[in-house]
């Protein structure tokens, strides 16, 4: 079921798309992280932030 309300869409996008992924273990980390919370690797990348509209 698609979200029609723009405010709710922005809240959902922030919750689902604003985090970093560890390239070593795949853990989800906050955007402000410099090291992985699970394995302490510094090899992090931002989540590909694209909200698909159907």
Provide the helix percentage.
Answer: 10-25%
Structural class: alpha+beta
CATH topology title: ZNF265 like
Do you know the CATH architecture? Irregular
User: What is the CATH top level name?
Assistant: Few Secondary Structures
Order of helices and strands: HEEE
**First-last Cα distance:** 10 Å
Cα-atom radius of gyration? 13 Å
Side-by-side strand order of the widest sheet:
2-1-3
Arithmetic mean of pLDDT:
87
Number of helices: 1
Q: Tell me what portion of residues adopts beta-strand conformation.
A: 5-15%
Number of strands: 3
User: Mind describing the biggest β-sheet?
Assistant: 3 strands, antiparallel
Task: Domain count, please report it.
Answer: 1
Topology, element by element:
Elements: H1 6-17, E1 20-22, E2 28-29, E3 44-46
């Amino acid at each position: 079921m698609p979200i029609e309300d723009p405010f709710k869409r922005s809240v959902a996008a922030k919750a689902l798309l604003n985090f970093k992924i560890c390239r070593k273990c795949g853990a989800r980390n906050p955007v402000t992280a410099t090291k992985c919370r699970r394995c302490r690797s510094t090899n992090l990348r931002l989540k590909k932030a694209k909200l698909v509209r159907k």
